[in-house]
Recover the amino acids of this structure.
DNA sequence: ACCCAGGTGGCCC
DNA sequence: GGGCCACATGGG
């Protein structure tokens, strides 16, 4: 750990600097689940348009989406890109939830976390990150979400050189208390930090982790 | 005009 | 297990 800081200390630092992120404000768990698909490889501002389309047409429920013709769904989710793929994904997940759980998300999430995760991973278009985002933000399960920012963050600040998804997830989960809200916030804070300070050059004076940043940058290019 | 964003699955070695 | 590709819109 850089400068002897623990992950928890880094979290507190980021929280003090950026404040609570309160990520993923949504009206329902299903909305988060749909959003998790839509946000794949696209910007949140674009996802919001799609979500708005779905909400305004009153279709943002498993039953209705499971019956909506694919062509119509494609048009609604078009703003978030990769829209043909995403329409199929959202359709099939909706169908699955309806057939298997009567569209009841409480029933779906009311089981062993690993069982839910395995089930999510069987769905078309749900990989590890999407599954974990759904578990954490929609199901309030203590699963740490690893995305491109998280991996970059780890490498950039010299936390770990691990690249494999599960190993990075384990890295976080074994160093943090089992706290859903903490997992949500830290993930969001890492994204916030990276967006603001990590895409361009190092030596960002205002970066809350600037000391570690500069240090790890030397090693990053050697 | 180009490059990328809160990935995934298929195909190759 | 890793590297490369298609998928696609809107913003910088």
């Amino acid at each position: 750990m850089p400068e002897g800081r623990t992950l928890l200390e880094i979290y507190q630092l980021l929280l003090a600097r950026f404040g609570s992120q309160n990520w993923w404000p949504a009206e329902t768990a299903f909305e988060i689940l749909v959003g998790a698909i839509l946000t794949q490889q696209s910007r949140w501002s674009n996802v919001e348009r799609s979500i708005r389309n779905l909400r305004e047409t009153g279709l943002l429920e498993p039953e209705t989406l499971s019956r909506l013709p694919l062509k119509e769904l494609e048009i609604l989710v078009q703003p978030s890109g990769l829209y043909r793929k995403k329409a199929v994904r959202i359709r099939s997940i909706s169908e699955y939830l309806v057939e298997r759980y009567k569209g009841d998300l409480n029933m779906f999430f009311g089981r062993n976390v690993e069982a839910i995760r395995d089930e999510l991973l069987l769905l078309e278009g749900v990989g590890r990150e999407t599954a974990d985002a759904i578990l954490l933000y929609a199901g309030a399960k203590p699963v740490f979400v690893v995305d491109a920012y998280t991996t970059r963050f780890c490498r950039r600040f010299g936390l770990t050189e691990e690249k494999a998804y599960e190993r990075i997830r384990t890295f976080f989960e074994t160093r943090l208390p089992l706290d859903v809200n903490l997992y949500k916030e830290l993930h969001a804070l890492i994204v916030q930090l990276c967006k603001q300070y990590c895409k361009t050059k190092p030596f960002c004076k205002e970066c809350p982790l600037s000391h570690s940043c500069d240090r790890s940058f030397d090693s990053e290019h050697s």
About this structure: Residues 23, 36-37, 39-44, 46-47, 81-82, 85, 89, 124-130, 133, 145, 147-150, 187-188, 191, 195 of chain A lie near DNA strand B (CB under 10 Å from a C1').
